[in-house]
Amino acid sequence: MSRLHVVSGKGGTGKTTVAAALALALAEQGRRTLLVEVEGRQGIAQLFETEALPYEERRIAIGPGGGEVWALAIDAELALLDYLQMFYKLGTAGRALRRLGAVDFATTVAPGLRDVLLTGKVCEAVRRRGPGGEGRAYDAVVMDAPPTGRIARFLAVNDEVAGLARVGPVHHQAQAVMRVLKSAETAVHLVTLLEEMPVQETADGVAELRAAGLPVGAVVVNMTRPPLEFPDPSGVPATEVAAALRRAGLPNSRRLAGPLLAQGRAHARRAALEERLRAGLGALERPVHELPLLPDGADLAGLYRLARRLRELDW
After folding, report:
1. Which of 63, 129, 279, 307 could lock 67 by a disulfide, CB 3.0 to 4.6 Å apart?
2. What is the distance, to the nearest Å, from the Cα of residue 184 to the centroid of all Cα atoms in its chain?
3. How many CB atoms lie within 10 A of CB 101?
4. Are the beta carbons of 38 and 145 closer than 8 angstroms?
5. Which CATH homologous superfamily contains domain 4-225+293-311?
């Protein structure tokens, strides 16, 4: 069973919603879970209808199984100050660097450094011990990660750092992070829609993650609609449809027949496309889970509904 769940997906697929629902599902199983945001969008706070998350771990939900969801929005500048204090004991000197703008400059001009800080902070939460050194501080950590197009580079950045800094605390920290990310404790889940571009990006993401030696978890197909059970209307003449509408007592049956047939044919093409896309996802040889489209949007009630669906799965 994984302890670090990295959730990625193409923009617009609802990866933040899925990450939040997964954290709730784990809490409903009785696990103390940390939900981490690394992109600075405050999407988690919006979903849980709470104030903006600070750079500190805050409890935002309690599951019926006794588990808790804690949340953290990682600030790269503050994470760098933590890093400088941890390894170099800079203390007030680190805070002075921030006042001078040096910390912001470093994290802006070196995006790779920002990724190192973000992944390092998440992995620290995974490794952290509980009070008195007993057990783990969290049973599970869920990261709302960057999009699929850059997830492999984001997670593998510490491999590059370990190669550049061959000795010293930076080298050892980078190696420690990669040990967590490449271990059986970690699973990288990819969120997609049943649309051609997201499915292709998911397949590319799986290939990149595998090439980087990173563990691929499940594929989550989000916003699915229940299938409509009716035969393919291709080849059905409009006169036959008009006659059926007339027998049903509908007015303007001849005028309605054409548009109804057009919609039926479009639905049949869409259903056939979705089946081909499902087959393509199945060929990735990873578990595929489907979540329904929320008719009222991703509000708090919808989040708990998705969590109930995810709770029954093996994560």
Report:
1. 63
2. 18
3. 10
4. yes
5. P-loop containing nucleotide triphosphate hydrolases (3.40.50.300)
